[in-house]
Design brief:
Helix content is 67%, strand content 0%. The protein is mainly alpha-helical. The protein has one domain (37-231). The longest helix is centred in the last third of the chain and has 37 residues, at 179-215.
């Protein structure tokens, strides 16, 4: 097993996800440090990133059976079992949330759902159960379901990413100066990047709503109309 003492010590500390307002290292600087990886380990990292941080388009196409099979084939190329398990966990949660969303929107039935991982059969069998009968096995699901019901997608994403962050951090701290350490750090960096972008998007949406509400009040409307009359 290759030890990456210099690389790991060169990686900055990532603050807790909720406190992460700015990345402590840019992607360009991070990639420069990652050149210390062997060619094979760098390929492992790149494959892990692509599988863990799926594009929105891929997740929208989740019922696509060929897509699921493609994930499974690529996962077989991940040599580290702990990393493979982290990726599987991520994809399973995405599949579960997708099933809840599709059922809520009435887009598909259980026979058309092709999710990823251990819970797919249970989801199909218990399609009409509020939480697919998984609420006891997955207590965290009870926290996410109300956010999905209220269509608070931004808050739901933050809750899930915090859960995944802790999962990655546990594994990262369980290994010392190994490829697992590096991959978990990079995957957490990706979650931090998503969090910052999501925070900015939520702040912009909030500002727009406040602006619309403010502009819709009679006093503001009357003031603006008077100002436009003076200008004309």
């Amino acid at each position: 097993m290759t030890r990456y003492y210099t690389l790991v010590t060169a990686l900055p500390n990532l603050p807790p996800l909720a406190e992460c307002k700015q990345l402590p290292i840019s992607r360009i600087a991070l990639d420069k440090r990652l050149t210390m990886l062997s060619d094979n380990d760098l390929l492992q990292l790149q494959l892990a990133e692509k599988l863990y941080h799926q594009s929105e388009l891929s997740l929208e196409n989740l019922p696509d059976k060929p897509l699921i099979l493609d994930w499974q084939r690529k996962l077989e190329k991940i040599t580290s079992q702990p990393i493979r398990e982290r990726i599987c966990s991520r994809l399973e949660w995405q599949s579960l949330l997708a099933a809840l969303r599709y059922r809520q929107e009435g887009r598909i039935g259980p026979e058309s759902f092709h999710g990823f991982g251990r819970w797919t059969g249970i989801i199909r069998h218990n399609w009409h159960d509020p939480l697919f009968g998984l609420d006891t096995a997955l207590p965290f699901l009870n926290q996410l379901q109300p956010l999905l019901s209220k269509r608070h997608s931004g808050e739901l994403e933050q809750q899930l990413n915090t859960f995944l962050w802790k999962d990655l951090l546990f594994v990262e701290r369980s290994f010392q100066f190994t490829l697992e350490t590096v991959i978990c750090f990079v995957l957490r960096w990706g979650l931090a990047e998503q969090h910052i972008k999501s925070d900015a998007s939520l702040a912009l949406d909030s500002f727009k709503r406040m602006s619309e509400q403010l502009l819709g009040t009679p006093a503001i409307t009357q003031h603006l109309e008077s100002a436009f009359e003076e200008l004309s």
